[in-house]
Design a protein that fits this description.
Length: 81
């Protein structure tokens, strides 16, 4: 039973998080040969400013969401200081 931990900066919609969990489950099924029912995903949202790079806190600011991963466009977090 794969248990997958995902740490994600806050700011994503419920729909985006659900899509992420579905796609990660699909990847585990395809690559590990397990049943979807055996895949566990723990999604932890990090509060803005509770993540740092080189000792500097990062703050979540998201670009306008583009839905539909099929078209190759994904919302990307943008760090601002």
């Amino acid at each position: 039973m794969p248990v997958i931990h995902i740490h994600l900066m806050e700011g994503r919609t419920t729909e985006q998080k659900q899509a992420l969990m579905r796609e990660v489950t699909r990847a585990a099924v395809d690559s590990l040969g397990v049943k979807p029912q055996s895949v566990r995903i723990l999604l932890q949202e990090l509060q803005s400013g509770h993540f740092s790079v080189a000792g500097e806190p990062k703050y979540a600011v998201t670009e306008p969401a583009v839905t539909g991963a099929a078209n190759g466009h994904y919302p990307k977090p943008v760090s601002s200081n």
